[in-house]
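Thread amino acids onto this structure.
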C-alpha cells in the first residue's frame, strides 16, 4: 500500500514514564490495570504543529516477569478539538507487522470528518520493536529481506539456506527480545497505554495487520474495548502461513477479472479481444522472459519477476498498461501512446528498505504468534510444487520455505476468538494484501461484529483511504455514535473512484510492500 509520511519518526528524549510493575499473576490475566500514571507530553518537533505531542512509556519486555527488563513505547497524540464533545481516546495502527504508527494522528486529524474527529484524542504509537519503540534488527542485507522466492527444484537448497540464515541472524542479533515481539504482547502494550492515559476503555482504528491486533485486544481485554474499526481484515484462522498462501489463491480470480477488463479495452492496450487471448499473451511473455529476460525500464525482467507482480492484477487500470508496455519491449516496438506505466522496481519490490527493522518485526510476529509452521523443509518443497500447478501466478512463491521453519517455538499459543466483539469490520472487494475471503474470515471469527463491504472497491485499506469510498459513511456514523449497523452493509463505490493507486490523494499510510498485511 501507499505510504505518505507527514513526519519523521519522533520519540521522546529522556522524558520517560515508568508504569507500576505487576505481579506475574496479574500480568497474565486480562484485563489488567497498570496504575494511575501520566506520560510526560512534549511537542514532537518544531516542524510539526504544537498540538502534536510525543511521550515515552516503559512496559515489561515479558509480562510474565513484570519486574524484569523493560522496553520503551513511543506514543503520540493530538487531543480532541472540542473537549465538550470528547468521547475518549482512539488508538491507531497502520498495519505491518512492523509498521510505524507514531505519525498517524497527524494523518487522521487531516482526513477525519469533524463529527468524528471532535470525539477523540488521537493516539499513535510505534508497536514494540518498531521505529522509536526499542527497535530490533536482525542485521539482514537487502537481498535477505526479500520474501519473493519462486520454487524450482534446482534452487530450493538456496531457498532453505536463505530461510535458515534469516532465522539464525535474527536469533544471534535479537534472540533475547524476539520471543516477546508478538501480537499478544502488543495488545498488552495497548492496554498499558490505555492505563497510562487514565482511560477506562479505548476506541481503535486498525488497518491490515492492525485488524488482527485489534481482534486480539478484544479477546484479551473485552471490558476495555469501545468502538473498534478493523479495516482490511486478517483471518485469524489463517495465521500466518495461510495469510501468505491466500495471496496465491485470490490472485487467480483477480487475474481472471483483469483479463476480462483488458479484453474490453483491447483498442487501448492491444493485448487481445477475449479473456483467453489476453491470458495467452501474458503467459507467453512469462515463458519468453524465462528463456530470455526482457529488457524493460533498464532492468532484465524474468518470468518469475512478472509473476511476482501478482498484486498488480487487483488493479486492472495499472496491470493493463504494465503488460502492454512489457509486450512492446519484448517485441522491440513502441508501446501504445499515452500509457501510464507503473515503475517496475516499485511494482515488484516496493520502496528500497532503509533498514531491516520492519522485516525483523514482521518475522518475529509471523513466526512467533503461532506454532503451526511446518519444520520439515521437504514439506515446503512439496507444497510449493503443488501450488505452482494449482495457482500458477503466485502459488509457489506463497508456499515456499520461510524463516519460520527454523524459528524458535512460540512462547504462547495463538489467541482463540471466542468472546463476543461488537466491532465494525471493513473490506474492499478487490484487496490484494488481505483479500475478501480473509476479511470475511475475520468477520465470522468475531461474534457480534458487523461488516461493511465496498463492492467493486479496489485496494488495500478502505476507511478514508479514498475519500469517495461508499464505506466511509457507515464507518463515520459508527465512530460518531457508537451504534453498529443493524446488519451487514454492502455498498458500491462509484467506478470512477477506482482510479490508479498513484492518483489517490489520501494522506493515510495504508501500508504496502511484499512484507505487509
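Threaded sequence (517 positions):
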Amino acid at each position: 500500500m501507499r505510504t505518505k509520511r507527514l513526519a519523521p519518526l519522533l520519540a521522546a528524549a529522556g522524558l520517560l514514564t515508568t508504569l507500576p510493575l505487576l505481579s506475574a499473576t496479574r500480568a497474565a490475566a486480562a484485563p489488567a490495570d497498570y496504575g494511575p500514571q501520566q506520560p510526560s507530553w512534549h511537542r514532537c518537533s518544531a516542524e510539526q504543529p504544537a498540538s502534536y505531542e510525543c511521550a515515552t512509556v516503559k512496559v515489561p519486555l515479558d509480562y510474565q516477569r513484570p519486574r524484569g527488563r523493560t522496553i520503551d513505547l513511543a506514543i503520540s497524540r493530538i487531543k480532541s478539538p472540542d473537549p465538550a464533545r470528547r468521547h475518549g481516546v482512539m488508538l491507531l495502527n497502520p498495519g505491518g507487522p512492523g509498521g510505524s504508527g507514531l505519525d498517524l494522528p497527524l494523518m487522521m486529524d487531516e482526513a477525519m470528518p469533524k463529527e468524528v474527529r471532535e470525539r477523540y484524542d488521537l493516539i499513535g504509537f510505534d508497536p514494540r520493536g518498531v521505529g522509536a519503540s526499542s527497535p530490533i534488527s536482525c542485521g539482514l542485507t537487502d537481498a535477505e529481506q526479500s520474501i519473493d522466492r519462486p520454487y524450482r527444484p534446482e534452487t530450493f537448497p538456496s531457498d532453505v539456506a536463505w530461510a535458515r540464515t534469516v532465522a539464525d541472524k535474527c536469533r544471534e542479533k535479537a534472540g533475547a527480545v524476539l520471543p516477546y515481539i508478538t501480537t499478544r504482547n502488543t495488545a498488552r502494550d495497548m492496554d498499558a497505554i490505555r492505563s497510562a492515559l487514565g482511560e477506562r476503555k479505548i476506541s481503535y482504528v486498525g488497518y491490515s495487520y492492525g485488524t488482527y491486533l485489534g481482534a486480539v485486544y478484544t479477546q484479551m481485554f473485552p471490558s476495555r474495548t469501545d468502538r473498534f474499526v478493523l479495516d482490511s481484515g486478517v483471518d485469524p484462522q489463517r495465521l500466518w502461513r495461510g495469510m501468505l498462501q491466500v495471496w496465491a489463491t485470490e490472485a487467480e480470480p483477480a487475474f481472471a477479472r483483469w483479463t476480462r477488463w483488458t479484453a474490453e479495452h483491447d483498442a487501448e492496450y492491444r493485448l487481445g479481444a477475449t479473456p483467453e487471448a489476453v491470458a495467452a499473451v501474458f503467459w507467453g511473455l512469462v515463458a519468453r522472459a524465462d528463456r530470455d529476460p526482457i529488457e524493460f525500464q533498464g532492468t532484465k525482467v524474468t518470468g518469475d519477476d512478472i509473476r511476482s507482480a501478482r498484486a498488480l492484477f487487483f488493479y486492472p487500470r495499472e496491470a493493463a498498461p504494465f503488460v502492454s508496455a512489457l509486450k512492446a519491449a519484448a517485441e522491440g516496438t513502441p508501446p501504445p501512446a499515452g500509457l501510464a506505466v507503473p515503475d517496475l522496481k516499485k511494482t515488484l519490490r516496493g520502496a528500497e528498505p532503509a533498514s531491516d527493522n520492519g522485516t525483523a518485526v514482521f518475522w518475529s510476529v509471523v513466526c512467533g504468534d503461532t506454532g503451526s509452521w511446518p519444520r520439515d523443509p521437504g514439506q515446503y518443497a512439496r507444497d510449493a510444487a503443488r501450488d505452482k500447478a494449482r495457482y500458477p501466478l503466485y502459488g509457489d512463491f506463497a508456499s515456499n520455505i520461510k524463516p519460520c521453519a527454523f524459528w524458535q517455538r512460540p512462547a504462547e499459543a495463538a489467541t482463540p476468538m471466542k468472546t463476543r466483539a461488537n466491532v465494525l469490520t471493513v473490506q474492499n472487494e478487490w484487496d490484494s494484501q488481505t483479500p475478501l475471503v480473509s476479511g470475511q474470515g475475520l468477520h465470522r471469527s468475531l461474534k457480534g461484529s458487523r461488516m461493511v463491504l465496498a463492492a467493486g472497491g479496489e485496494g488495500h485499506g478502505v476507511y478514508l483511504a479514498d475519500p469517495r469510498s461508499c464505506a466511509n459513511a457507515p464507518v463515520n456514523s459508527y465512530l460518531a455514535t457508537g451504534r453498529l449497523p443493524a446488519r451487514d452493509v454492502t455498498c458500491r463505490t462509484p467506478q470512477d473512484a477506482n482510479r490508479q493507486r498513484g492518483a489517490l490523494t489520501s494522506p493515510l499510510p495504508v501500508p504496502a510492500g511484499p512484507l505487509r498485511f
